[in-house]
Amino acid sequence: MIGRDGAVALTVRDGLAGLTRYFRDGGIETPGTDARLLLAHVLQVEPGRLIIMADDPLKEAALERAYVLGARRRDREPMSHILGGREFYGRWLEVTGDVLDPRPETETLIEAALRKPFNEVLDLGTGSGAILVSLLAEKGEATGIGTDLSGRALAVAEKNAEALGVGERAGFLESDWYAGVAGQFDLIVSNPPYIAADEMPGLAPELAHEPRMALTDEADGFSAYRIIAQEAPEHLLPNGRLMVEIGPTQGAVVAAMFREAGFDSVEILPDLDGRDRVVAGVKPRE
């Protein structure tokens, strides 16, 4: 495109191509996707609109802003931190460095939990509130509590609950797992820290920007599951369900913990890639 002064004017297509090369040269695994998300964010449009806008002129200030943010991505800061959030289960959630970045794999737990009715849900280690607020948004009559050790994480979760219109049905408690939790629930869910301490050095550099205590138990990766499984029956109604996200190699061990704690109908559920992702069990009727 030629500008009024005869100079070559950059288009949205040019900016997208340049950002993609910038990310690819920086070793980013998904350069095209990240470039689209970032440029759309700067232009304040939906990523899908970039196709329609491909031949539109791109202001120099917008391109400079994109590269300033792009430098953060090249430093392996998660895209959700740069954009201020991410889409999870069809809804936009605020994400900061105080919470775990919600992964698409966690939607497997949401899908499984929604297969049966529930009225009261407890989300242990709620973080951004992704699991709790998504479940409450899908089930208009349900109420729930989210616990977390981090007050900053709970503040993010509260914002997400309000933004999704479920704030009046969600409560948040600064708590070490079940500590301070009263009453019984018909559904308990959790995505606890399950990475073993000795596995941390080999993880993607993006994880250095996330709270360490949301990633690892600083032990063998199973500490949280032991507590969650052992104490769950006390906090579940008869026929209540316990569902946890797991690492893809942890299914058999966590399922054994559920059985030892007295759960029936224990099953290991796969994610969309076929990897073990959720362990579920049912508290027997008394």
Radius of gyration: 22 Å
Shape: elongated
What structural class results from the helix and strand content?
alpha/beta
Q: Number of DSSP helices?
A: 9
> What is the CATH topology assignment of the largest domain?
Rossmann fold
Helix coverage percent: 25-40%
**Element order: H for helix, E for strand:** HHHHEEHEHEHEEHEHEE
Query: Stretches where pLDDT falls below 50 for ≥5 residues?
Result: 1-8
Number of domains: 2
How would a crystallographer describe the biggest sheet?
7 strands, mixed
CATH class of the largest domain: Alpha Beta
CATH architecture of the largest domain: 3-Layer(aba) Sandwich
Mean pLDDT: 94
Distance between the termini: 74 Å
Major sheet strand order = 5-4-3-6-7-9-8
Total strand segments: 9
The CATH homologous superfamily name of the largest domain equals: Vaccinia Virus protein VP39
Short summary:
The protein has 286 residues and is of the alpha/beta class.
Feature tags:
2 domains; two-stranded antiparallel sheet; disordered N terminus; alpha/beta; about 290 residues; Rossmann fold; single chain; 9 helices; seven-stranded mixed β-sheet
Q: Topology, pairings included?
A:
Blueprint: H1 12-25, H2 31-43, H3 60-74, H4 79-83, E1 85-88, E2 91-94, H5 107-113, E3 120-124, H6 130-138, E4 143-148, H7 151-163, E5 170-174, E6 185-190, H8 223-235, E7 236-245, H9 251-260, E8 264-270, E9 276-282
